[in-house]
Amino acid sequence: MLAEKELLGGLTPEHFLREYWQKKPLLVRGAIPEFRGLIERAALLRMTGQEDVTSRLVRQTQNGWSLSHGPFRRRDFPPLQGGQPWTVLVQELNHHLPEADALLQRFAFLPHARLDDLMVSYAVPGGGVGPHFDSYDVFLLQGQGHRRWQISSQTDLELMPGLPLRILKHFHAEQEWVLAPGDMLYLPPSFAHHGIAEGGECMTYSIGFRAPTTQEIATQFLVYLQDRLDLPGIHADPDLKLPEHPGEIPAGMMSGLMEMIGQIRWDRQIMADFIGRYLTEPKAHVYFEPPEPVLPHDQFAGQLASSGIRLAPASRLLFHQAHFYLNGEPVDLPGQSALLTELADQRRLTPRRLKDTALDWLYDRYAEGFLVL
Ligand code: SIN
Ligand code: CO
């Protein structure tokens, strides 16, 4: 069976999109039959000590829930056995682990523009983050160990007040399964769920999606416009009449200022430019490091010819018509749509000999850390 159909339990991606995506849950037994996870517990806990790793520790205490944010030291974690249940969640594993980036490529039947990140959770037996819902679509892929998932189509999404975590006040499980390594559960946005590590320690990989809210897009578009605004003129009133009420805003001033505001203009091209930049903008905490050492230009060309190149795991490259955007900036590389399309779709280029502007452009992005050999 094709890997995509196996991943979706025998469904074609078209069938999945039509019947399930954003509509209803799908349980897939053996979605990736050989999957046992991408990282061991010890390495994951060590990783939470890094400054550039986003992690959270959730503990179930006697009187409720506690939440703390990384970086963590080993002694910040409660005992692995015999204590109260806890779980640690690490965001953007795909930025730190090439295998995690490769796993996300299996979900390329969905647009890269919708993909957010790969999160991984480690839980001691009985650990979890409580019954909740997420605003986004998610595929929950079971790694090491087992997790009991309970889900509910309930529309009562009221949260418990006063908690550091979003926990549903009333959770009524309608279906439940124990997921084993390689099993996967897809949940559409706002579908209530509750997962508990069962029978031992457990690691779950969440392939998460993103979808901006109207408020977010509108606000960010206004910021974009503001950065580019350059309107001429200053309010003038050579015909000013003696005011009856000095405290009143003159009618002429009111309409003049309104006309100024009316000079703010945008069209579809400007909106498309904003959207390209917005969707590829790295998150605030993401930064790129140049390779160590940076190969000289001719050696780089040789490596490209022998082994190709790929986008750095945190890089985002998207396009609309012939406009390409990489990490928040438009790409200025005329006549190279085929090359850029391959890089955007596959997140890599197969080995090739290049020269002139395309080679220079790739070299500069490599030297910035946006591309890796
Ligand atoms: C987890 O892996 O513990 C939580 C994932 C989720 O519920 O979204
Ligand atoms: Co969730």
Tell me what you see in this structure.
The structure is a single chain. The chain is α+β, with helices and mostly antiparallel strands and 373 residues long. Helices cover 28% and strands 22% of the residues. A hairpin with a 2-residue loop joins β2 and β3 (64-69). The chain is globular. It binds succinic acid (SIN) and cobalt (II) ion (CO).
Cα shape = globular
**What strand line-up does the widest sheet have?**
1-9-6-11-5-4-2-3
Number of strands: 17
CATH architecture of the largest domain: Sandwich
CATH homologous superfamily classification of the largest domain: Cupin
Q: Which structural class best describes the helix and strand composition? A: alpha+beta
Q: What's the helical proportion of residues?
A: 25-40%
Largest sheet: 8 strands, antiparallel
Number of domains: 3
Nearest-integer average pLDDT: 96
CATH topology of the largest domain: Jelly Rolls
Please render the helix and strand layout as text:
Layout (H helix, E strand, L loop, with lengths): L2 H5 L5 H7 L6 E3 L12 H7 L7 E7 L2 E6 L16 E5 L2 H4 L1 H8 L9 E9 L14 E5 L3 E7 L22 E5 L4 E4 L4 E7 L3 E8 L4 H15 L22 H12 L5 H13 L16 H11 L1 E3 L5 E4 L2 E4 L2 E2 L6 H10 L1 E2 L6 H13 L2 E2 L1
Antiparallel strand pairs: 1-9, 2-3, 2-4, 4-5, 5-11, 6-9, 6-11, 7-8, 7-10, 12-16, 12-17, 13-14, 14-15
This protein binds succinic acid (SIN) and cobalt (II) ion (CO).
Task: Provide keyphrases for this structure.
eight-stranded antiparallel sheet, binds succinic acid, 373 residues, binds cobalt (II) ion, alpha+beta, 3 domains, Malonyl-Coenzyme A Acyl Carrier Protein, domain 2, three-stranded antiparallel sheet, Jelly Rolls
